[in-house]
Design brief:
Number of strands: 0
Order of helices and strands: HHHHHHH
Helix content: over 70%
Radius of gyration: 28 Å
Number of domains: 2
Structural class: mainly alpha
Strand content: under 5%
Number of helices: 7
Largest sheet: none
Shape: elongated
């Protein structure tokens, strides 16, 4: 049960940054639209009543500047991400093919490494158990215990969960 739970949580953790960015962006845009609508309605009411105060106009202008600054910050974050991707592309232009491939294999390499480590430990653990007279059931319970299942499923689920949320 714990393995299933950690598998699901690890899979979902790969997409948490995307989900949080989406929710924050949606909330920010909704708030900005509501604020702009309220300001426009208040400004129209004041103009209809003949009360246009310079202080209020400056406050509205300041709020507009803040909204524009927030939008520019969001655009700056997007531009920064694009610049980082462009930097990776540019830095790979002069590199040899094996260096480019090695950089691309970091995350899969960790997943493959954990899998190979698991296979190595299990194969030699069973080999040792057979030669020392330990029963298969006992060896299996010792080698593939709940902790091993949780660790392995978390790593694999996080890796594939991150890949699924990128698309």
């Amino acid at each position: 049960m714990m393995t299933l739970f950690t598998t699901v949580v690890s899979f979902l953790m790969g997409g948490v940054p995307k989900i949080l960015d989406f929710l924050q962006d949606r909330s920010d845009k909704k708030h900005e639209i509501e604020l702009a609508q309220m300001q426009m309605a208040q400004q129209l009411q004041m103009q209809q009543a003949g009360f246009v105060s310079q202080e209020r106009i400056e406050a509205i202008h300041l709020d507009e500047l803040k909204i524009n600054a927030d939008l520019q910050q969001g655009q700056a974050n997007i531009d920064e991400h694009k610049a980082l991707l462009q930097h990776d592309i540019e830095s790979a232009k002069g590199a040899s093919t094996w260096v480019i491939n090695a950089r691309a294999m970091v995350r899969p390499g960790i997943a493959y490494g954990m899998f190979l480590l698991l296979v190595f430990v299990d194969v030699f653990g069973f080999y040792y158990a057979i030669h020392t007279g330990v029963s298969f059931d006992s060896a299996l319970n010792l080698l593939w215990d709940d902790d091993s299942q949780i660790i392995f499923s978390s790593i694999i689920s996080f890796y594939f969960g991150g890949q699924a949320f990128k698309k």
